[in-house]
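FAQ: What does the model actually see?

It sees only this:
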Amino acid sequence: MQMKTFFLIVFVFLHLLSYCQNGTVSSVQITNHAEKRKIYLYVYKHKLPVDSAIIDKDSMVCLSFQQHSPIYSLGLEKKPSVFYFFKDPGHPVYVNIGIDEKITVHNSRLNMLWSESKTYQDSAVNALIKLRGTVDSTFIEAKNSYEKWAYHRLVMLMEVDTFVAVRFLNFHLNKLERLIFANPLYMDSIHLMMQRFPIGSHPLLTEEMFGKIEGLSSLAKGSSFYHFTLLDVNNDTISTKQFSGKTLLVDFWASWCKPCREKNQELKKYYDRIRSKNIEILGVSLDDNLEPWKSALEKDKLPWVQGKLQSEQKKTVQQKYNAYAIPLALLFSEDGKLLEINPSLESLIK
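And it is asked to produce this:
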C-alpha cells in the first residue's frame, strides 16, 4: 500500500511538472514551504489576476496563462505587488516560497540578470550615500565609476530584453536623484539611446521617466539657465531674471537639512570675499512649510537673497536642476551658462 502511495505521488508530481513545461501554455510552478495561502498571478500592469490557486504548506501548484509577458507579480489576497519576477519566453519558471517567507526564482535567465543588476546597484549606491560629505574627489570618482557600470549594464540589458533594461533604467534614475547630479557623459548617452522609444511604446516608458532623463541630462556644463520665480519672507516675488548679466551661485537648501545649513554658514564666513569676485548668491528653499523656513532664516541670518519655491513650481524646478538631494549649489556665468556643480569655497574666492 505504501509503495502504491509513493508511485501515485511521483505520478502526480511528474504530471504537474509536465503540465508546467507544456510549450503551448505559459506557466509558473510554485512550491510553498510556508503556511497555507491563496496565491494570485498577475501580468505586469494588469489589475486582474490571470490565474490563482490555494496552496498548502510543503506543496506545489502550477499557474498558467496564455498571454506572454516578461514580467509578472505574485499577490496574496489580491494584492499584486508582493513580489515581481521575470520569466524567459517559452520556458516555465519555478518560484519557491521558503519557510521564512523568502521568495526565490529559478530557471529564468532574465530574472537572474535583473537580480544581479539590482543587488550590485543597491550596494554601490548605498556606499556612495555613505561617501557623501567626505572628500569631494573621492565621492565623484566613486560616483563616476558607478555611472559607467550602470550605463554599460543598461546597454547589455537592452540587447537581452527591453523590459528588464527599462525597469533597470527606472531604478537607476531614482538612484541618481539621490546622488545630487549625474555625469553628462553617461546621462546624455542614455538620453540619446532612449530617443528611439516613443512615450507609450512600452508599458514602462512613461512621460515621468522621460522627464527624469531630460532633467538629469540637462546639467552638463554649458547648459542654459532655466528662469523661475520665488517668494521672499514678505511674500514678494523674486524673479531669477533680475540676476541676468551676473555670475550667480544658486544654492538649493531647506530648513530641515542640517548639512545645508552648515554649508550656508561656511558661505556666510566668506560672503564678502565671494561678492568681491562679482558673484551673487540666490538661496532657493525647498521647504514645504513657510514657518520653519522663516525661523531658519531668522536664526541663520544669511546676507544674500532668499526665496522659497511655491508648490506649483517646485516640481518643475527640481526636475530642471535635478535638485532632489541637497545641499546643491550651481554656479552660472554672466551669460547664463552652467559653470560648475557644487563649486568648492576655494574656487569661489580664488
